[in-house]
Prior knowledge:
Layout (H helix, E strand, L loop, with lengths): L1 E6 L7 H15 L3 E6 L3 H11 L3 E6 L4 H10 L3 E6 L9 H5 L4 E3 L2 H9 L7 E3 L17 H9 L7 E7 L7 H11 L6 E7 L3 H15 L9 E5 L7 H7 L2 E3 L9 H8 L4 E4 L4 H4 L6 E4 L1 E12 L9 E15 L1 H12 L2 H19 L1 H15 L4
InterPro entries: Glyco_trans_1, Glycosyltransferase_grp1
Pfam family, one: Glycos_transf_1
Protein name: Glycosyl transferase family 1
Amino acid sequence: MRSVILYAYPPEPDGLSLQGDLLYHGMKENGEEAIPCHISSEFQKEWSYKYFKPDVAIGVGYWGHTPDLILHPQQFGVTPIPWFVADGWIANYHDAISSLPLVLATSTWVKKTYERDGVNTKNFEVVPIGFDLDLFKPISRSDPRVKMVRKMLKIADDELMILTIGGDVTSKGAQEVLKALKHIDKEFKKWKYVCKVWGGDSADDHYDAEMALIEELGEESKDKVIYLEGSLSPDFMPVLLSAADIYAAPSRLEGFGMIQVEAQACGIPVISIDKMGPQETILHGETGFLAKVAETVELTSEIVHPGMGFEEEGRIHFEKPKIFAYRADINELADFLLKLLTNKELREKMGSRGREHALASFEYHKISKKIADLAKERLNLL
Length: 382
């Protein structure tokens, strides 16, 4: 099978790009014929279709990328196979997506979101995102790279590091984690909470609310919250993850949870939310804890615009409210944090089980083979 893999190539330090790059390398290393191409490079995509003559164009993105992932390859007689994530709702391109012989979704929750919003999902298959086991693996706390990270963050040997990573950390549940830390601070004080953000408008939008919650921790504890901003290379991510004792991301909206899988691969226990992608990637009580949903954010309408494939800006009103976000239960988060902070044996046990789980379920060669096998079977390319 000959495949063009459409994603942000050369790879960039973001989830969609890395998802595509691992698929491309997995295909090549598994013996499949594949070439990479940037998702928005019209000229190179056309060249790839005419010169390479692929059987399929496998593209990484969400429904808003339909013009690049689906409509463009169809113009050249190439069968598109989108590998979709989801944001809050599926606003457009329902017919184009529904008519495809094969669509991949990163989780069952993503598939159900497309179905909820009117897409026919009979040809959808759930395929999780892969990770590189040689890159994301446990690194000893005594490793000089890890020791330097903790030293630069001013985390003492007897302090425990909680870590959250995101473009912004509120979307990853940081406000809920801050509230939970306030609950347990009197009982356990030797913690530091590191919030790694990429920055930008989304991070700025939540900054004031995050700072207010940090102030509520009080003079003695507010300095225990540390912010890092900017891009990190994939090679550095396992070093940062291995510096942590707990990875906490009870996300408000999470179609998969790539970093949560990478944290498990590094042997770090994970705390998240019992919904969406994390419900499918974390084994509650084995590789981490999943807090129940306490609240949902529901909308009765949403704005649409030409960038979403509509002729003009307007507002779509829903027949019934749609859930656009979730909030994890603060009391359960506090309980799970305290259990892990006070029990080294439990952290190590969950970390070891997390590594096993990641290897068994998310190794990128296995994921690439599953996608190739599905495409060959569904499109009669055997």
